[in-house]
Amino acid sequence: VTYTGRYTADSRDQLLAKIEKQLKPARFAHVQRVEHTAVKLAKQYGVNVEKASIAGLVHDYAKQRPDEDFIEAIHHYQLDPDLVNWNNAIWHGLVGAELIKSELGIYDEEILDAVRYHTTGNRYMTTLAQIIYMADYIEPARDFDGVEQARLLTSQSLELAVAYQTKHTLMYLLENNQRIYPKTIDTYNAWVPQSG
Ligand code: GDP
Ligand code: FE
Ligand code: FE
Ligand code: FE
Question: Hey, how many other C-beta atoms are within 10 angstroms of the C-beta on 73?
Fold first, then answer.
């Protein structure tokens, strides 16, 4: 994917170099697999492939930042104060998007929302956000019970795939006595039960 300059002043190689500095090698390899998966899905579903590439590469940009960076950003950007009661799993997307904006100069709100919602999902997700949510879940190195079903569903219907991931992640969190972030429940209610 060749970048046009619309969404980042960096070339893809320049963006890759900045991301590599932030991440351990295994995480850097993961984001490149998510990018590749997201670009394929973008072509299938008629989404801007440059946005899919950028969102895939940056989605875990903040994953290895210290907790203090997120606490500071929650205050500085006046995000929901309840966020301070959560942890890296919840912060790296929802708060990480602000670090991507300020440090990488990526201002496209659809890309930023795709990053924000890649972990918890959201009531409203653009097709790009659905693609990043699914690409993160099914990238080729993912190996868990149900990943083949998730890959098949993603190739057939993004909506059914989002519902599948949302339900299975919630079941996994419940099974392991994890705290459920409210947005995760909102996503479940929006995507999983039959409407009407
Ligand atoms: P990764 O960054 O590529 O490893 O993947 P994600 O960003 O999708 O997920 C990060 C972690 O957040 C995973 O372990 C999820 O199970 C976890 N997670 C997702 N939703 C919730 C939630 O509501 N509560 C908690 N405690 N963890 C969650
Ligand atoms: Fe993540
Ligand atoms: Fe995910
Ligand atoms: Fe990821």
Answer: 21
* Interface ipTM: 0.98
Q: Looking at the domain assignment, is residue 194 inside a domain?
A: no
The alpha carbon of 7 and the centre of ligand 3 are apart by a number of angstroms equal to 23
Taking the mean position of all CA atoms in its chain, how far away is CA 83? 17
Number of domains, the chain: 1
The rounded Å distance from CA 54 to ligand 1 centre is: 21
Range of the domain at 94: 12-143
Per-residue pLDDT tens digits for 138-166: 999 999 999 999 999 999 999 999 999 99
Among 58, 119, 144, 168, say which to mutate for ligand 1: greatest number of ligand atoms within 8 Å of CB: 119
Ligand 1 atom with minimal separation from the 93 CA? 7
Q: In residues, how long is the chain?
A: 196
Flag residues of the chain having pLDDT under 50: none
